[in-house]
Amino acid sequence: MNDDARTNIGTPAPTPADLGSAELRDQVERTRHELGRTVEALAAKADIKDQAKKKTAALKGQAAEKAALVSEHIRETAGHAAQVVKDKTPDSLQQKTAQAAAQARESAAKAGQYATDKTPDPLLERAGHATTAARANRTPLLLAGAAVAVFVLVRRSRGRSRCRRPRSPTSP
After folding, report:
1. CA–CA gap between residue 127 and residue 140 (Å, rounded)
2. Separation of CA 130 from chain center
3. Among 38, 57, 129, 139, fewest CB within 10 Å belongs to which?
């Protein structure tokens, strides 16, 4: 081996004289671009957090599909079971059940009408206004109800803790 071979190890081979500086720049730019893509690909493979997110998303999708299939299977099984029960139930029992349901609906309608007839008109009007206001302001009403419930629970727990005071050893 001569000294020239040793000193030229790892250095690019000289380019032919016909390559101009513009061609060299283009070649360098292409090489940089390819190197950039390679680095991005390696970085993506090394990004464990991103890979975990992608895997989680894929598993969520699979779980949703399986849940939909299971849900559909349950619906079909329930429908089949209902049909089997209906088929095995005697017609006389089905008729009696239908009559009882109709009587219950009729009785409920009569009770509602009776209550409406016996309630004074001003009270019905106020109830209607209160219902409308409650529907328009559900969130504040729910928050107020929750606050009242918490207040009552706190008062109850304090009352119980007062009753549970330990007796002193001298008291009978």
Report:
1. 19
2. 34
3. 139
Cα–Cα distances (Å) from 58 to 52, 54, 64, 104, in that order, read 10, 6, 10, 51
pLDDT value of position 172: 52
Q: How confident is the model over 57-109, as pLDDT tens digits?
A: 898 889 889 898 999 999 999 999 989 888 888 888 888 888 999 999 999 99
Instruction: Measure the CA–CA gap between 93 and 106, rounded to whole angstroms.
Output: 20
Determine the straight-line distance between the first and last CA of the chain, rounded to whole angstroms.
112
Q: Please count the CA atoms within 13 angstroms of the CA of 83 that sit on its side-chain side.
A: 6
The length of the chain, given as a count of residues? 172
- pTM to 2 decimal places: 0.33
